[in-house]
Amino acid sequence: MWFLVLGLALSLGGTGAVPPMQSRIVGGWECQRHSQPWQVAVFSYHKPECGGVLIRPQWVLTAAHCRSKNFQLWLGRHDLEEPEATAQYVQVSASFPHPCYNASSPESQLPGQGQDYSHDIMLLRLKEPAQITDAVQVLDLPTEEPVVGSTCIASGWGTTDPEAGPSGPVCVRVCGDSGGPLVCDGMLQGITSWGHTTCATPNKPAVFTKVLPYVDWILDTMAANP
């Protein structure tokens, strides 16, 4: 698993029509094993598609454009290609994309030019609660705004090679980072939504769905679907 450290000098608001993008971390450093225990690997039809974040033992938050009819989730993973004793395989019983999300694009399609990705946020309810361990932990929902200048970490299974393009053979094998958490000073603040093909470079920032405005919707949805 990789992480990318960002300085919070960008908008965490909803997204609109977007240019050509990519959805994986490029650059960054390998995470210390299980230093991001809330990180979820979201598979669709047994292929890695997105990231997610465990916010309750039975609930995962991810991006709405990661929707699928056949989810499989892995918790407690560091290396997606090697068996790990800490890993937990969980299935999804229901998905809840935000009701204002534009669902006109094909299922599981990544954001592309001209598409509207406002309200790009979704809840996944697990069939069974995750077991909370040292390698699997929940991350609390935000209670306050991030401060400009905060240190923020976006994590996922991208590539540390900035020359690796979205169609390269390495990128085919790695999990996209859409839907993964943006953690600022230890608090969940964003869900990775999209970025330019040269992501997180000057004048081409990564874009995250800001979580704080959706907290009431998240809590109401979980309460209505126990």
TrEMBL record:
Q: Can you name the source organism?
A: Orycteropus afer afer
SMART domains reported in the protein's UniProt record = Tryp_SPc
Gene Ontology cellular-component annotations: secretory granule
Kindly indicate where the leader peptide sits in this chain. Answer: 1-17
User: Gene3D superfamilies attached here?
Assistant: Trypsin-like serine proteases
Keywords recorded for this protein, A-Z: Disulfide bond, Signal
Peptidase S1 domain sequence ranges: 25-223
Protein name listed in UniProt: Kallikrein-1-like
- InterPro entries (alphabetical): Peptidase_S1_PA, Peptidase_S1_PA_chymotrypsin, Peptidase_S1A, Trypsin_dom, TRYPSIN_HIS
Which GO terms label this protein's molecular function in UniProt? Answer: serine-type endopeptidase activity
The record's section on Pfam families has: Trypsin (PF00089)
Q: Which GO terms describe its biological process?
A: regulation of systemic arterial blood pressure; zymogen activation
